[in-house]
């Protein structure tokens, strides 16, 4: 995927859901994975032509894993002239040692987002951008339906009332395979996920389930995504 195609996806999502307002300062959650790296590039490049001006900052939340190397992220932010804040936490110790969670991803996600939001507020950011892609939307929909018995997925824009901050997801239209293609095409460096639960979660099972259905039904993922966007869920109504 070319950078122009990535920007087209991101701009369409931003405009469809009014993700960016004039004068916004947006904190990008930069984990170092392919999605967050692509997101930072997209929002950085979009500043050249987007109808309104906005500022960017990047935040990396360290979960406390000893082998996490953030130096490539600092290099990336330096190249884009974007400020990077590094937040140290003991989330890994809490989740895997103190709590010994059987389903660690849920607690980890909540704590990580809390740390991210707190740092964003400290930096004067009113919005936090996360790198969830189109595949994540579909996977979360099936996770909620099959494991929780409800029709739900995260929204393109959500409001954290306790923090008075908005969360935006400009990559919701981008298929994961296109992000992989973008990262490979331009040779961008990513950071390996050191989490011991990576690849062995319910989300990984759902990902395999979706692959199986895609082999059985033509255009399965696009049909599901289109249906999600049409559901009477307040989170998916265009603003």
Main sheet: strand order: 3-2-1-4-6-5
| SSE order, one letter for each helix or strand | HEHEHEHHEHEEHHH
CATH homologous superfamily caption: HUPs
Oligomer: single chain
- Under the CATH scheme, the architecture is 3-Layer(aba) Sandwich
CATH class: Alpha Beta
Globular, elongated, flat, extended or rod-shaped: what is the shape? globular
Which value, in Å, is the CA radius of gyration? 17 Å
**Average predicted local confidence, pLDDT:** 88
Percentage of helical residues? 40-55%
**Can you tell me the CATH topology?**
Rossmann fold
Contiguous uncertain segments of 5+ residues: none
Based on DSSP secondary structure assignment, what is the total number of beta strands? 6
How far from one another are the termini? 29 Å
How much strand content do the residues show? 5-15%
What is the domain total for the residues? 1
Main sheet makeup: 6 strands, mixed
What is the topology?
Blueprint: H1 3-16, E1 24-29, H2 34-46, E2 54-62, H3 71-80, E3 83-88, H4 91-98, H5 104-122, E4 127-129, H6 134-148, E5 157-160, E6 165-168, H7 176-186, H8 202-216, H9 220-230
Parallel strand pairs: 1-2, 1-4, 2-3, 4-6
Antiparallel strand pairs: 5-6
């Amino acid at each position: 995927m070319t950078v122009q195609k990535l920007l087209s996806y991101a701009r369409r999502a931003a405009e469809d859901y009014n993700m960016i307002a004039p004068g916004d300062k947006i904190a990008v959650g930069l984990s170092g994975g392919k999605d967050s790296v692509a997101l930072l590039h997209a929002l950085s490049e979009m500043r050249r032509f987007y109808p309104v001006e906005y500022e960017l900052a990047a935040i990396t939340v360290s979960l406390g894993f000893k082998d996490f190397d953030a130096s490539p992220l600092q290099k990336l932010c330096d190249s884009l002239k974007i400020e990077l804040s590094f937040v140290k936490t003991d989330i890994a110790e809490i989740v895997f040692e103190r709590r010994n969670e059987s389903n660690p991803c849920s607690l980890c996600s909540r704590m990580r987002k809390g740390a991210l939001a707190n740092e964003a507020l400290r930096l004067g950011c009113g919005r936090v951008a996360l790198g969830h892609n189109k595949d994540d939307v579909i996977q979360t929909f099936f996770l909620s339906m099959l494991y929780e018995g409800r029709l739900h997925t995260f929204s393109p824009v959500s409001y954290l009332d306790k923090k008075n901050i908005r969360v935006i997801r400009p990559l919701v239209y981008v298929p994961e395979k296109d992000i992989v293609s973008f990262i490979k095409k331009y040779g961008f460096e990513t950071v390996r996920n050191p989490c011991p639960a990576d690849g062995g979660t319910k989300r990984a099972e759902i990902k395999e389930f979706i692959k199986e259905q895609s082999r059985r039904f033509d255009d399965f993922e696009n049909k599901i995504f289109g249906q999600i966007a049409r559901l009477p869920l307040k989170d998916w109504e265009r603003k």
